[in-house]
Amino acid sequence: MSSTEELLKHELELTWIKGTGKSGGGCINEGTAYDTDKGLIFAKYNSKPEAFQMFEGEYESLAALKTADQVKVPSPKKVLRNPKGGAMLVMDYIDMQGLSLHAAKLGEQMARLHLFNKGLKEKAVSKQQSLHYKVDYSCYVTHFGFPVTTCCGYLPQDNNWMDNWLDFFARKIDQHVRWAEEKYNDRDVGQEWSSLLPKLPKLFLDLDIVPALLHGDLWGGNAAETDEDPVIFDPASFYGHSEYDLAISKMFGGFGQTYFNSYHNLIPKQQGFNDRQDLYVMFHYFNHWNHFDGGYKSSTIRLMHGLNKKLSS
Which positions make up the signal peptide (predicted)? Predict the structure, then answer.
């Protein structure tokens, strides 16, 4: 038995454990499936020093999505420190394949997820319930943020609660501008962002944004399906604007038009939707730039400059 299996057996109080030979992973983490006396589990690994914080955020994201119960997600079990370095996240194993037959169903379920907190608001008005600090995802959440830090990729997101969505989102971009300046000694991006920031309220005129529980990183690689249902995983959740979750879904493919049609049947597009999508895509280009460099700087600057020019007219 490997040291990893010994650790899992001890921490999960298992009688027996053995590898299934099934594994998975991407550019950030690796993972392995195990059969145990308590059922199939999947363990994700990362050797980075900040992995424990990253997996804690994913654990809480899965817990929140599980509580909302609008779309299928793996049930999180435990975050463990790896004696060899880094950490691991253990969850139930789900046998799944690429999203195909259930794309429309996922669109409807994601819309219902984004409406879930609004429904809690309608039930809680007379009781004036709110969630600022507690980890109770069945209560209405009045603010934008999340109880813990979550990571989009391996970069941490500042999820401290704020009562204004645009202020919260601007803080996310501020983080990435600062990282780009520090990592790449890039000063042009800060000047472009400083010019764009005061113009952004024009994109949110007459919008009443109720905080929605988001997946936070729903690109095609983080969605799949079983024979019966769609599945989403690898979340980087927080409470934010529902439109935010759609931006990365359009960036790298994997979601057909049936997904978006089904979504918008429940949440129609509002005025200014396309420009706000450019703004939210800009965040993800920033995030990829600060992860991988490559050609993402030019895409980030192009979107920022385009919005700057449009909002100046």
Answer: none
